[in-house]
Specification:
It is a single chain. The mean pLDDT is about 95. This protein is α/β, with parallel strands linked by helices and about 210 residues long. It contains 6 helices and 16 strands. It has a single domain, classed as 3-Layer(aba) Sandwich (Rossmann fold). The strands form 4 sheets. Strands 1, 2, 5, 6, 7, 8, 9, 11 and 13 form a 9-stranded mixed β-sheet that branches. A 3-stranded parallel β-sheet has the order 10-12-14. It has a two-stranded antiparallel sheet with strand order 3-4. The chain binds 1-O-pyrophosphono-5-O-phosphono-alpha-D-ribofuranose and uracil. The site of 1-O-pyrophosphono-5-O-phosphono-alpha-D-ribofuranose (PRP) has 22 residues, from strand 7, strand 10, helix 4 and helix 6.
Amino acid sequence: MQSQNVILIDHPVIQTKLTELRDYTADHRKFRALVDEIASLMVYEVTRDWPTKPRPVQTPLERTTGRVLARRVTLVPILRAGLGMAEGVLRLLPDARLGHLGVYRDEKTLEPVSYYQKLPPDIASTEVLLIDPMLATGGSASAAVQFLKKAGVGSIRFVCIVAAPEGIAALHKQHPEVPVFCAAIDRQLNEKGYILPGLGDAGDRLFGT
Ligand code: PRP
Ligand code: URA
């Protein structure tokens, strides 16, 4: 399903795992495994229209021409919770480089606070997947996209598991060209900026804090 640069991946297997993820009884071990699996499954849709280039290959029987990804890939998790999706994505894109952006949102103001940035030097010429399980107010994602653009990145896809309509609107107000891939668009934010129905605090549930 697609509208206004939002791609909702409502595959039945992903939805089944997302429902288990929402369950408050899932402990950090189960939660971590589910985030990892969902991230992995999402990669197929997220990368579906990436360009490929021909590559000759010698099979045991003859020479032929296959196709491989045309551009290098950089994965950029937003710390902390984005780390929970990184391994799952890397399983399918093992040649990807990894950048890290540390952003947390101030509990009172809900404004994003950036505290760490480390990107591969050639990131500008790569396809970038920016990953974070939650898009709530959109502050963290917008700040991260802004940083990537300053680093010269031209192709950014934001991949999350649960998005709030408010977060999509805020991200697209500043960065309308950045596609949002998600497994769910939830109802709304509560007064504390948590997504409803959501799945709670993704970082805390992932890391057991
Ligand atoms: C969570 C989540 C996103 C952010 C989303 O991180 O992982 O980064 O909130 O909220 P926003 O759209 O309103 O900015 P958090 O700030 O809790 O930090 P953490 O990952 O270190 O727990
Ligand atoms: N961050 C989370 O981890 N969960 C929310 O519901 C909102 C922001």
